[in-house]
């Protein structure tokens, strides 16, 4: 077992299912364990059959986090993008309203009344503030009275809870997607450029004035938000069938996006919100890296780190190599790594390291492994063979990142950003927060047995490497920037 006081995870979604569990008020709290509804229609059965690897239960409810000793957790708020609620090429089985609502409920864990409301409502900023208020309502004692949850604002608070309060969860506030700053007025299409910038600035400052302002935020997510283009994130069935990601995909930063970026990173309008580059288009990331490089050169005592909170490697040496071929099923079919440009090239991993940033390895088998790996995984003869395949792919991502940086200090850059409860294709053995102790032990045991990529251990023991990954690097990052 680990010698660290607890585990950390820099990207989870514990509010997502519980906050959307009812309407007008959630039916669940964040401590509860619950499952998605069962199918009663052809649409529901279609949803089950096409999302078999997506967990249909709450993976990161607070009791689950405590059972797994995941007591330092970055909780990501996420008002649902409307692109998920505007399906195209819809099979006949889902054409009815009831069918669509059931399909969405099964896939997401949302209540059908909530799905109905989200389809009609057009104000992300109100939804964000409601989700934040819901999280705050869940702060404090657990229903059983034995445990506690605290949203932290400082490294000192985080450290004290991790080291001295074994029955307390320490949460760090994050947000996924800057579409959340857009209110009804901004989404109406009736505001001019100046009015849009003024409204955007006002909403960013409003969030910075929360009792617990976000530490980290993604600029982009799955759909175009008028700020920055996004990387392709969905496979053929979803991305080229049901959901349309094409608008703005792979475009760069807009003028409004640069305004948002500067307001978020500013220290003069409240506490800085650091930008998470996950989901940004390659063009957007290049532009952002260049801006950060210039800023850091001129402000050596105020370095801005590059962050990618839940990701994998794509196996390409450079950013240019990542986009030489269009992201597609064919591009990924014979790749060991998931080689789309949403994942990180060696060049980008080095940039993260050079800015003293952080990279979270996610626990999504379809984002760590490419087509070649998934075929081999499917061919596993038994549970042990399957588990070994999963562990090896996890470490192939880790060691590719270490190799990209190319020095012992590389081990200070990586962490776990699982994306649990984010609708990912989980590894069956490690599909919830309470499996973290088992995951840690299995990873240590596998390294001891295989001596995998030992030259890249740089003299560290398996427990030392895993302690950095599961706890120490997150804490050092928070100590530096929080």
Structural write-up:
It contains 20 helices and ten strands. By secondary structure, the protein is of the alpha/beta class. It has a single domain, classed as Alpha-Beta Barrel (TIM Barrel). The strands form two sheets. Strands 1, 2, 3, 4, 5, 6 and 7 form a seven-stranded mixed sheet that branches. A three-stranded parallel sheet has the order 8-9-10. Helix 4 crosses helix 5 (112-120) and helix 9 (193-208) packs parallel to helix 11 (255-265).
Compose a concise summary of this entry.
This protein is an alpha/beta fold and 482 residues long.
SSE arrangement:
Layout: E1 7-12, H1 14-19, H2 42-49, H3 62-67, E2 70-77, H4 97-108, H5 112-120, H6 124-137, E3 140-141, E4 148-152, H7 155-164, E5 168-175, H8 184-187, H9 193-208, E6 216-218, H10 236-242, H11 255-265, E7 274-276, H12 282-298, E8 307-311, H13 319-322, H14 329-332, H15 346-354, E9 358-361, H16 365-368, H17 371-378, H18 383-405, E10 414-416, H19 436-450, H20 462-481
Kindly name the structural category. Answer: alpha/beta
Instruction: Name the CATH superfamily assignment.
Output: Metal-dependent hydrolases
General form: globular
- Tally of discrete structural domains: 1
**What's the tally of helices?**
20
Order of helices and strands: EHHHEHHHEEHEHHEHHEHEHHHEHHHEHH
Low-confidence stretches: none
Instruction: Specify the CATH class.
Output: Alpha Beta
CATH topology: TIM Barrel
Rg for CA atoms: 21 Å
pLDDT average, as an integer?
Answer: 92
Which band does the percent of strand residues land in?
A: 5-15%
Number of strands: 10
Sheet bearing the most strands, described? 7 strands, mixed
**Helical amount among residues, as a percent range?**
40-55%
Q: Which architecture per CATH?
A: Alpha-Beta Barrel
**End-to-end Cα distance:** 29 Å
